[in-house]
Amino acid sequence: MFPTILFFIFAAVLIGAALGVILSRNPVYSALLLVLCFFNASVIWVLLDAEFLGIVLVLVYVGAVMVLFLFVVMMLDLNLERLRREFAGYWPLTVAVAGFAVFAMINVIVVKHLGGAGLQTAPALAANYSNTRTLGVELFTRYAYPSQVAALILLVASVAAIVLTLRQRKGGKPQDIAQQVAVRAKDRVRIVKMASEKKL
Fold first, then answer.
1. Which pTM value belongs to this model?
2. Among 1.10.540.10, 3.60.15.10, 1.20.120.1200, 3.40.50.720, what is the CATH number of 1-78?
3. In which element (H, E) is residue 165 found?
4. What is the C-alpha separation between 27 and 38, in angstroms, rounded?
5. pLDDT digits over 98-137, tens only?
6. Where are the chain's structural domains?
7. Out of 58, 76, 179, 194, which residue is the most buried by the measure of CB atoms under 10 Å away?
């Protein structure tokens, strides 16, 4: 009973933080609320006896990916007013996708329950069960190729983020490495010969 109460509490906080991510006007606040989403999702994983996934969610996403997101958001110098005007035309598509997601959740939770399938609880795990070993076996056997595709997509996203931060900006002072390497000492230093002063 107590794990069920904890699940609903953290699930409610997770939904609220997720709404804050998409409704916040400040992109930095959105990123911080996304960190809160990851923490709550990690607790839910732990409640489902998937400790490895919960720890990885905190260490990888909160500790590395979200730091990268914050750096990208702060370095891109986004024009928020222009983005809001551009995204205003996508509200019908957003509502359609959200409606489909809600319909899918209602279909899984309500329709199957009323149809007699019921909400089945997960079977008890053995004392020596290791979800880390099970995930490793599945990842490197059954899902080897999808994991490689996901790694390739993340690599492309990382390169794109780096390219976006290196774009030319007004008022910036970019360095020309070739010009700096080609500098000669005699072009920068001038030796002036002066007559020595007489001692009084």
1. 0.56
2. 1.20.120.1200
3. helix 144-165
4. 17
5. 889 888 878 877 776 665 555 555 666 677 777 788 888 8
6. 1-78
7. 58
